[in-house]
Design a protein that fits this description.
Elements lengths: L1 E2 L2 E2 H22 L3 E10 L4 E6 L3 E3 L7 E3 L4 E7 L2 E2 L2 E2 L9 E6 L5 H6 L16 E5 L16 E4 L6 E4 L4 E4 L53
Parallel strand pairs: 7-11
Antiparallel strand pairs: 1-2, 3-4, 3-10, 4-7, 5-6, 8-9, 10-11, 12-13, 13-14
C-alpha cells in the first residue's frame, strides 16, 4: 500500500525509528549486572576497582557500531558472607573475577551512614552504584578437583583444605596451628595421634622424653626433661 508516492511500510519505519533509538539508548544506560575483572582491592575500605568484562557495542554520532570498553569503576563495595558477629573474608587479588550488580537507586548516602537514607541523586541502575560479588568465574578459571559430595574451604592448589562431609571432617595442610586458652578433645571411641615429632607442653618431646627424679619401688617420677 502506498500513500502518495511513499510506501506505507517506509512511512511506518520512519515514524518508529526515533522510538527505536530511544529504547536502544535507554538499554545502553540501564545497568543490571555484568561480569567484571578486579583491578585492585582496598583492604581498609573493603572496596574494589573493577573493569567490566564485556565491551559495549555503540554507534557514536551515527558512525558504524564499534566495541567500546566501559570505563573502570572505582570504590565498588564487595560482598562476602557476613551476619551477626561473624564474617568470612577472602584475600581479594587483582585478576579475580566477580559479578557486578547495580542498585535501583543512588547508594551514596547509605554507603556513608549505614542507615535509612534519602537519595542524593535521582540516578537509577547507574555505573556508580555497583556491588561486586566475588566468587564467580569463567571457564578458563574453573576449580580443579571440585568435590561433588562435600563442602570444602580450600586453596586452589588443594594442598590446604577443610572438608565437611556427612559423617567426617577432614583438615589438610602442611602446618596446622591452634591457639586457644583451652583446647578440649573428646572421642567416643578412639583418639589416634600419629607423627614423627610429637611434642607436649613447652616443646618437650612426647615420644622420646625422659623423667627426672626417678626412684625405684613406690616412688614417683619427676617432671618431663
Amino acid at each position: 500500500m502506498t500513500v502518495g508516492k511513499l510506501p506505507l511500510s517506509s512511512m511506518m519505519r520512519s515514524a518508529t525509528e526515533p522510538l527505536k533509538r530511544m529504547v536502544e539508548e535507554f538499554g545502553v544506560r540501564l545497568r543490571v549486572a555484568m561480569p567484571g575483572i578486579i583491578k585492585s582491592f582496598d583492604s581498609a575500605k573493603q572496596t574494589v576497582t573493577v573493569q567490566l568484562a564485556i565491551r559495549e557495542k555503540l554507534s557514536i554520532g551515527g558512525s558504524p557500531y564499534e566495541d567500546v570498553a566501559i570505563p573502570i569503576i572505582e570504590d565498588v563495595p564487595v560482598f562476602m558472607p557476613r551476619a551477626g558477629n561473624f564474617v568470612l573474608t577472602m584475600p581479594i587479588t587483582a585478576g579475580d573475577e566477580c559479578l557486578v550488580i547495580f542498585a535501583d537507586n543512588c547508594i551514596d548516602s547509605w554507603w556513608e551512614s549505614g542507615a535509612l537514607s534519602n537519595q542524593l541523586d535521582r540516578r537509577r541502575h547507574d555505573l556508580s552504584d555497583g556491588f561486586a560479588l566475588v566468587g564467580v568465574w569463567s571457564q578458563p578459571n574453573v576449580v580443579s578437583n571440585y568435590s561433588g559430595d562435600s563442602a570444602v574451604l580450600r586453596n586452589l592448589n588443594n594442598d590446604s583444605s577443610v572438608e565437611v562431609k556427612d559423617d567426617t571432617v577432614n583438615v589438610v595442610a602442611p602446618t596446622v596451628n591452634i591457639q586457644s586458652g583451652t583446647v578440649n578433645i573428646e572421642g567416643s571411641s578412639n583418639i589416634t595421634i600419629n607423627g614423627n615429632n610429637l611434642t607436649d607442653i613447652d616443646g618437650k618431646n612426647f615420644l622420646n622424653h625422659k623423667h627426672s627424679g626417678v626412684q625405684t619401688g613406690s616412688g614417683k617420677t619427676g617432671g618431663v626433661v
